[in-house]
Amino acid sequence: MTKIAIIGSGVMGRSIAYTAALAGYQVYLQDIHTKALDDAQAYIQKELKQSIARGYVNPEAENEIQQHLNFTTSMEAAVSDVDLVIEAVIERMDVKIEVFKKLDEICPEHTILATNTSTMSPTEIGAQTSRAGQCITMHFFNPAHKMKLVEIVRGLDTTDETYEIAKEVALGMKKEVVEVNEFPGFVTSRMNCLIGNEAMNMLMEGVASAEDIDKAMKLGLNHPMGPLEVADLVGLDSRLRNMEYLYKTLGEKYRPCPLLIKYVKAGRLGRKSGIGFYNYN
């Protein structure tokens, strides 16, 4: 495993690409939008400069890390000679299936196809390809270069060899790994969505302010971030899609909070839009 392609250069894709480059992999970051790639490149350069300034990265390694990163709008160019593809597109099953079908057609036979989904079925995604045994979930957390965990989720047909390779790659990126047998929401999203949704319900009911709800969770339960801060970081549109999927698959307790729906309709998407439960402007 020396070459990795990342499909989608949004919040997660660019962070995973940076993480892989730091670990010494040759990385090909692909997106259909040139502007998104330009933004991703600027983000990675900024993070690299900050990591060097803070002593996390050796200054002498800067050029080598930059040489590990390749940016392209062509999926064919990105995956033509890679060992692993990590899909990081929008959290919609139809889009992910479309991407995996194309990847199955154009990737080398040995290439493993991983999805970074936080909730959706790797079995369903992998079943649309001719290599279900080589399909798996590698769920990174935002920002991937700082968060320690990768959830590795087996689909029904995922082989032991595929799991071991995915684990080896995650460990090579200096991550901790948990192995999960597929079920909607896996471990972290299933818990995190419940906590966040209840925080939103409490805010809607006037139980406490957003600041005090988050403060209570941080100081009372030792969470590093409050649930509303986390939702803003993830993106409220992404959180709503996750909640809708979990509501569909796991039932009533995952019904999205009406306040979340209202905020998304209003364009209050969190940090990326400048306003969510907090104002970032």
Automatic annotation (TrEMBL):
Alphabetized UniProt keyword annotations: NAD, Oxidoreductase
Gene Ontology MF term list: NAD+ binding; oxidoreductase activity, acting on the CH-OH group of donors, NAD or NADP as acceptor
Positions of the record's site feature: Important for catalytic activity: 139
Residues the record lists as binding NAD(+): 8-13, 31, 91, 96, 118, 142, 272
Record carries keyword Hydrolase: no
Occurrences of domain 3-hydroxyacyl-CoA dehydrogenase C-terminal (ranges): 185-280
Pfam families: 3HCDH (PF00725), 3HCDH_N (PF02737)
Domain 3-hydroxyacyl-CoA dehydrogenase NAD binding span(s) in chain numbering: 3-182
InterPro entries found in the cross-reference section: 3-OHacyl-CoA_DH, 3-OHacyl-CoA_DH_NAD-bd, 3HC_DH_C, 6-PGluconate_DH-like_C_sf, 6PGD_dom2, NAD(P)-bd_dom_sf
SUPFAM superfamilies xref list: 6-phosphogluconate dehydrogenase C-terminal domain-like, NAD(P)-binding Rossmann-fold domains
GO biological process, alphabetically ordered: fatty acid metabolic process
Pathway membership: Lipid metabolism; butanoate metabolism
Family designation: Belongs to the 3-hydroxyacyl-CoA dehydrogenase family.
Protein's name in the database: 3-hydroxyacyl-CoA dehydrogenase
Species annotation: Bacillus yapensis
Source species taxonomy: Bacteria, Bacillati, Bacillota, Bacilli, Bacillales
